[in-house]
Q: What sequence folds into this?
């Protein structure tokens, strides 16, 4: 390899290395702000794209490698599959089909995470190809450089991401990149032979200038940042907040920092359950109340790890061994966490490469592979629902709470801005109760009989300086589960009772039953929140304060008759008379439920018959819709064809560049290159006249374009014609001349 080729190769490697680090600066905030994860795997894809360009890999082979890598990424990240498998590929294909249908219907919430990743990879792929074009053909990346700076400035100004260091790094890298490209253009436009010493002599002043300006900028005094947001940006943020304040769809979300606002119903299924009984499904707890919502403690998340079949370290202890049951979950949405029944003991699915970890602060359980969160689409769990002795609960004392260790202080946290009247109300509600359990139930009962109403639409958002709980308790008295559960947790804490906010799903709807195992469907409408309070000597116990929800039947009525124990709902315990009345109501309710289920089965049969009749009509309707789609598609194709023909002078040269790059230089012949060039010149008004020699025509073209590349290429072509296909010139130089002329034509 000649000295010139070594310098070119080294320069190209340096350019791509700089581009790689600038792309890293793009990925870092995206991954951090969206909690995407797997930064290393995205960087591997960037290396694949850049590497294939550096070695000028065959286009088909390059495409195949990148495509297979994307498929592997989707299987590994979303299904936990390390190697290619038919089942995993079918699952990915199914998600792709669901997402395409969702996009056509305009339902963005149904687009799967795997499909979003595909779009991100395609965008990344196109971006790298565009950068490669700028580097090798245009010899400038000023647009990419400026776009990167603008992107980081906006991210730094409008989000929590701190891009100060990133902007400095990009300024240094971008200046170096543009300087190297300028040096390359100097050598390409001159007759000076490219040598390492000449190249280095030009680069040294550039590097010294960058180092000097960086040191100068670091040492100079800095102007203090503006305190107030500029009016234009403030208006943009106000508009954004106004958009977010609209009606949202109900469902599980991880961000609870700003509660309030109306929700519309969403009956799309989230998961299916096969179990003996219907029940609540716990996902996580949150401890820090801000006055506007719930947040988790900033900083690192500490976890316990465990494997299949191992006991899960949870603060909620399971019930008796003899009451152990099994529940099987089948996900319909790509949630990377476990739905927990109360009394969860272990995850019993047969062993594979997955393990699990439980976040200590919120008790969310996640499946993982190599410490990376993955999707577990189906799993079985052993659990035993905990039961509580009513006798033990009624013996609890408020004074016992002072014996709790320091670790429970986090469950008493309250913002200093909490209005005093919240505490006063809690004391007023519970003043006649002696034990901890009855005080908690008094708050539950308070919501039932004091004018509060359950609503998903008539729900206010607290104003600036207004507390979320205070607004609900004293002003609106209308809301959904978040209002009731948050208010109860806060009131319990004002009394000194440790409490935490719980998120998950309420009971689903039964859809079938077989040999004692029932199948339930849980939808987005079942997304729910409730309360867990800590009672010394008993442990953590769940409470349901939301109006219209049945709650938990997990208290053993062992006060009067210890031989005939039965479970009662703590929400229904008001006094002895109320207990008896509600037991009768429970029996009536059970009977009514059985009758309702029977009626529901009969209704389903009728509904099935009706659906069979309607299916033919739906098929006809679907056929008409497809005819419309095909017609629209045909019209679009015709329009695109006409536009393509009218704009062929612009896109055909680009297509030729792309075509020959995919072929690879070893598969390109100069006669084909030259003839395609003549055709493009003809389309742009530079046709070879009859009787005019190639050399004469080449001089005319060079004069028009202000270059000598056409004459050089013509000399090589004539040498090729008259020497039986032999050529003494380097093929890289031929392609460089040809690409330069093609780009000048479209210039």
A:
């Amino acid at each position: 390899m000649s000295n010139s080729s070594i310098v070119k190769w080294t320069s190209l490697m340096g350019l791509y290395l700089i581009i790689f680090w600038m792309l890293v600066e793009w990925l870092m905030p995206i991954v951090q702000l969206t909690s995407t994860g797997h930064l290393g795997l995205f960087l591997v894809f960037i290396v694949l794209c850049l590497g294939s360009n550096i070695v000028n890999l065959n286009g088909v082979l390059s495409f195949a490698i990148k495509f297979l890598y994307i498929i592997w990424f989707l299987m590994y990240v979303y299904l936990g599959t390390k190697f290619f498998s038919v089942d995993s590929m079918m699952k990915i294909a199914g998600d792709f089909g669901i997402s395409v249908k969702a996009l056509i219907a305009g339902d963005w919430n149904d687009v799967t995470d795997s499909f979003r990743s595909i779009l991100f990879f395609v965008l990344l792929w196109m971006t790298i190809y565009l950068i490669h074009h700028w580097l090798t053909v245009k010899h400038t990346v000023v647009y990419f450089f400026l776009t990167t700076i603008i992107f980081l400035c906006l991210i730094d100004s409008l989000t929590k991401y701190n891009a100060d260091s990133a902007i400095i790094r990009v300024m240094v890298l971008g200046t170096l990149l543009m300087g190297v490209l300028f040096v390359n253009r100097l050598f390409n436009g001159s007759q000076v032979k490219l040598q390492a010493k000449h190249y280095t002599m030009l680069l040294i002043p550039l590097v010294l200038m960058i180092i000097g300006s960086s040191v100068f900028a670091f040492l100079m005094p800095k102007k203090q940042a503006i305190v107030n947001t500029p009016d234009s940006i403030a208006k943009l943020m106000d508009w954004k907040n106004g958009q977010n304040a609209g009606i949202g769809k109900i469902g599980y979300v991880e961000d609870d920092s700003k509660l309030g606002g109306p929700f519309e119903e969403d009956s799309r299924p989230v998961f299916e359950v096969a179990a003996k009984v219907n029940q609540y499904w716990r996902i996580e707890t949150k401890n820090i109340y801000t006055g506007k919502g719930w947040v988790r403690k900033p900083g690192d998340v500490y976890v316990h790890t465990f494997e299949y079949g191992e006991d899960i370290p949870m603060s909620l202890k399971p019930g008796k061994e003899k009451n152990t049951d099994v529940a099987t979950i089948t996900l319909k949405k790509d949630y990377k966490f476990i739905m927990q029944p109360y009394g969860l003991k272990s995850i019993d699915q047969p062993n594979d490469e997955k393990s699990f970890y439980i976040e200590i602060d919120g008790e969310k359980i996640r499946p993982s592979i190599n410490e990376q969160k993955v999707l577990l689409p189906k799993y079985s769990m052993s659990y035993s629902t905990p039961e509580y002795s009513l006798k033990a609960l009624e013996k609890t004392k408020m004074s016992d709470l002072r014996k709790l260790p320091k670790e429970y202080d986090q469950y008493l946290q309250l913002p200093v801005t909490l209005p005093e009247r919240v505490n006063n109300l809690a004391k007023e509600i519970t003043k006649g109760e002696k034990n901890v359990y009855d005080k908690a139930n008094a708050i539950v009962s308070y919501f039932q009989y004091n004018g509060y109403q359950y609503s998903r639409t008539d729900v206010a958002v607290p104003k600036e300086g207004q507390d979320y709980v205070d607004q609900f308790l004293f002003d609106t008295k209308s809301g959904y589960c978040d209002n009731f559960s948050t208010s109860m947790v806060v009131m319990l804490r004002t009394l000194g009772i440790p409490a935490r906010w719980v998120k998950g799903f309420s009971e689903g709807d039964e859809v079938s039953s077989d040999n004692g195992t029932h199948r339930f469907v849980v939808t987005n409408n079942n997304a729910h929140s409730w309360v867990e309070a800590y009672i010394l000597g008993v442990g953590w116990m769940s409470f349901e304060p939301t109006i219209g929800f049945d709650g938990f039947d997990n208290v053993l009525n062992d006060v009067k008759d210890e031989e005939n124990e039965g479970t009662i709902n703590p929400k229904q315990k008001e006094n002895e008379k109320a207990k008896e009345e509600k037991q009768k109501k429970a029996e009536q309710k059970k009977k009514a439920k059985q009758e309702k289920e029977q009626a529901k089965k009969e209704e389903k049969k009728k509904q099935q018959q009706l659906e069979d009749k309607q299916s033919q009509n739906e098929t006809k309707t679907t056929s008409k819709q497809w005819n419309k789609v095909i017609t629209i598609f045909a019209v679009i194709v015709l329009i695109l064809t006409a536009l393509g023909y009218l704009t062929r002078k612009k896109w055909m040269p680009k297509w030729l560049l792309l075509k020959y790059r995919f072929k690879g230089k070893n598969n390109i012949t100069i006669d084909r290159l030259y003839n395609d060039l003549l055709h493009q010149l003809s389309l742009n008004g530079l046709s070879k006249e009859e009787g005019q020699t190639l050399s004469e025509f080449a001089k005319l073209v060079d004069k028009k374009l202000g270059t000598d590349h056409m004459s050089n290429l013509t000399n090589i072509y004539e040498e090729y014609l008259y020497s039986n296909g032999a050529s003494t010139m380097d093929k890289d130089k031929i392609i460089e001349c040809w690409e330069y002329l093609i780009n000048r034509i479209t210039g």
About this structure: The two ends are 34 Å apart (CA to CA). The CA atoms of residues 558 and 587 lie 19 Å apart. The mean pLDDT is 80.
